[in-house]
Amino acid sequence: MNPITSTTFIRNLPYGVRRNLSDFLDPQESWKEVLVSIHKPTGEPRYSQQHLRRFEAVVLQGRSPTMELLNDWGTSNSTVGELVDILISRKLLAAASILLPDAINSCLPAIPQPALGHRVKEIVYNSDDTTRPFGRTEEQPLPDCSSEPHKEHKDTAGFLRLSFDELRRVTGNFDERPVNEGGSRLGAGGFGTVYYGHINGKPVAVKKLHSTEEISLEELSVQFNQEIQTLMTLKHENLVDMVGFSCEGHHPCLLYAYMSNGSLLDRLACLDNSPLLSWHQRCLIALGTARGLDYLHRNSHVHRDVKSGNILLDKSLVPKISDFGLTRASATRSSSTVMTERIVGTTAYMANEALRGEITPKSDIYSFGVVLLEILSGQPPVDENRDPKFLMEIKDEIDEEEMTLEDFVDQKMTDWDLPSVERTYSLASDCLNDKKNKRPLTEQVLSELEDVVKSISLEELGTK
After folding, report:
1. Is the bond leading into 114 cis (omega within 30 degrees of zero)?
2. Can you tell me the distance from the alpha carbon of 322 to that of 345, in angstroms, rounded to the nearest whole number?
3. What is the pLDDT of residues 248-273, one digit of tens each?
4. pLDDT for residue 464 is more than 50
5. Which listed residue (23, 26, 241, 305) is catalytic?
6. Which of 155, 168, 267, 340 is most buried by its number of CB atoms within 10 A?
7. Interior angle at CA 399, CA 396 and CA 400, nearest 5
8. Where, by residue number, does ATP bind (predicted)?
């Protein structure tokens, strides 16, 4: 395959590249910003309002307006360089990086690292941020890594921009010993390693990214930029807080506020002898997670990797959704579907349509259904020594009365009551419907969980 350069004709772009561009430009109708910026050699706009309405109409037919626009514009001798210039002028840098990463001063190193065997255990701390509605989300400019950083300089959207040397200092030179052995290492996974440190007197988790045999530098660049882009745009009590980044050194780094209670996955397993989560605590965690998910979907974003390992708990067990490297903006609300050629996510949580490459909020709902089963049972989503291996398949045994719900519930809990457990299980079953259009919307999930928590609170008041 010939490399893409600024002189490559748009009509010669591979289908997969054009489809990746549509993943970025179809949502929030960013393709319109490109359309109005296209001009004829005479300086006149190439497309009129009539053309705009024609491209809008293809959405109703289930087609991509970006693909149609590129196909039409590609009939002339338009080039990738012209398109990238437009994308940069419109601050659509994540889309531009798909075509010409060097054109936006890519921050990524050229030193790949070997893959690490187990999933990163991200830990961030409690935030005092409250929900701040944004309405229509605007794409923020990505950080410019070409200038000299200052360790206490606040960059775009109030994020700290630090040098790699400063991060090396605060993490004890990225001490690979576990924290409980006097080192800095909190966890590791396919995308990088997480270290503990302090910035301005506050504890932080520093994720140092690296490429692997499976994840190329180009893919890592997109994910690094995507996480920054998402967390610059979206702020909510139940989303993880990014406090800064670094584009220097051998590895790009992301900084998060440190969260003392780790992931929901670890707490359900009582890892490191942590105390058992009560039924009430679990329901509050489910409710907070649903609030974060509802906020994402109301702002036209699909997470694509909702799982207990990405639900982090602060010192008060307030949940925060993390890991936005795979997040993609969807078109409008829950009815939208975007297609992608690259299948991403975690198999034990993935809906059938996600396995086909569809990007839709209803896939997040399915994944959340698996999380609810974990909360109910205290069991991991996949266990090679369990029959069935996948937790979602145990639901079939309950539905077919081969197992009772009472036997499925985490036997270590003592405060659960059957009515609230039944309602939660029923909600999980609805979320796990094979037909995506029959799954509930996030606001419906939220409403049901609010009622469950309210019923538990009233029950507790009645016993006092």
Report:
1. no
2. 13
3. 656 788 888 899 898 999 999 998 88
4. no
5. 305
6. 267
7. 85
8. 207-208, 307
Residue 202 vs residues 153, 197, 305, 319, 442: alpha-carbon distances, Å? 16, 8, 28, 19, 34
Structural domains of the chain, ranges and CATH numbers in brackets: 10-104 (1.10.533.10), 105-260 (3.30.200.20), 264-459 (1.10.510.10)
Cα angle vertex 403, ends 274, 425, to 5°? Answer: 60
Catalytic residue flag (residue 417):
no
Q: Is 362 within any annotated ligand binding site?
A: no
Q: Which residue has the tokens 């702020």?
A: 235
The token duo for 102 is 């060097």
N-to-C CA span, the chain: 71
Residue 370 has pLDDT above 90, yes or no: yes
CA 190 to chain centre: 15
CA 65, CA 203: separation in Å to the nearest integer?
Answer: 45
pLDDT score for 191:
66
**Residue 151 assigned to a binding site:** no
Contacts by 37-46, CB closer than 8 A, 24 or more apart: 37/86, 37/89, 37/90, 38/73, 38/78, 38/86, 46/73
Hey, how many other C-beta atoms are within 10 angstroms of the C-beta on 50? 7
Look at residues 57, 76, 69, 79 and name the one whose alpha carbon lies nearest to residue 9. Answer: 79
Which among 342, 167, 308 has a CA at the least distance from the CA of 245?
167
Compute CA distances 435 → 295, 331, 333, 345, 365, whole Å.
23, 20, 18, 19, 12
Q: What is the mean pLDDT of the chain?
A: 80
436 is in an annotated binding site: no
DSSP SS3 for 135: coil
223 contacts 140 by C-beta, under 8 angstroms: no
Structure tokens at 239: 């989303």
Q: Over the stretch 410-433, which tens digit does the pLDDT of each residue have?
A: 999 999 999 999 999 999 999 999
* Closest C-alpha to 21, from 76, 60, 59, 71: 71
- Three-class SS state of 9: strand
Place of tokens 């300086």: 43
pLDDT mean over 98-126? 45
List of residues 6+ apart from 276 with CB closer than 8 A: 270, 412, 413
Whole-structure pTM value: 0.66
